[in-house]
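Example 3.2
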Amino acid sequence: MDVEPLIETMDQQHASMDDELKALAAGGRRWQATADAPDRDAVAAVAERLLPALYEHLALEEEQILPLNDRHLTEHEWKTTVEASLNKVSFARRLLMLGMALHGASEEQAQLLRAAVPAVVWHAGRPLGSRLYRTHRDRLASASRDSGISTG
């Protein structure tokens, strides 16, 4: 399989999304500082532009990149890659991510996740992450209600 076109596509998507993520972060900081409706709307506009590209990119990763990883990376290489990515994320964000992953997960999915994390992370992080996610979700829902943005 010639992966050069795939790598080129992924690189282009990363560059495009990087610009939008920077714009989203800058807009988010501005909105946080002002709490103005125009700043909120600007953040929403960037997010709306970003989401289709993000969905397309993630689908491509799942359909083509992950199968390549399965075929060509050892378990140790894959774990090293995941750890390097996670090291870029704060511990609190990792807990939030765990809570997000567990929210709505089937029992089978939860068990797969449990097998992938150290026991201490699972036992301590699962309740903390779930609580962080509930708080995060409630805060977003409250902000949406207060601003008149529809969540459904």
